[in-house]
Amino acid sequence: MERLIFATGNEGKMREIRDILADTYPEILSMKEAGIRTDIMEDGKTYEENAMIKARAVAEAAPGELVLADDSGLEIDYLGKEPGIYSARYLGEDTSYRVKNADLIRRLEGVPDEQRTARFVCAIAAVLPDGRELAVRATIEGRIDYEEKGNNGFGYDPIFYVPEFGKTTAELTEEEKNLVSHRGKALRLMKEELKKL
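The structure corresponding to this sequence follows.
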């Protein structure tokens, strides 16, 4: 298998995916690049279910291709693991992450460091050309910072502080982020699983 289709249109995500999987798959296409336009209803109850819904929908539109999809989210312990699987749709799908981040910081006002624990979760699902399916999950632990910092990430990266680096994921270099991020870890796990097959 020389190529794969990743069920996303997010350019930031595609950069990460290509960085990590390029040595295994010379051709990595987004849905758009593969000419696939399909409305996908993500109504699963877990990250794995949502990732699989996306992978199956794209695999149906591109039979015989290796298709990967991910679902990820931010879980803040103090907020009962919100926004969780609704991270992309938190406060509305078209709401900017600057507004979403500001809202989460506001909701944690006065909450001390030790209670601001959070994690990014990423599940990646694969549908193989022969119809077999598999899924993996990975996380990165950290806490919610008091303000947005950094310009290297996207989404909730500017407020997610990683103690081992002493900075937010938006302040990490691409190399640092790919090593420790939830998506980076999940992509490497999936790469190993696919090699076994």
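The chain has a mean pLDDT of 94.
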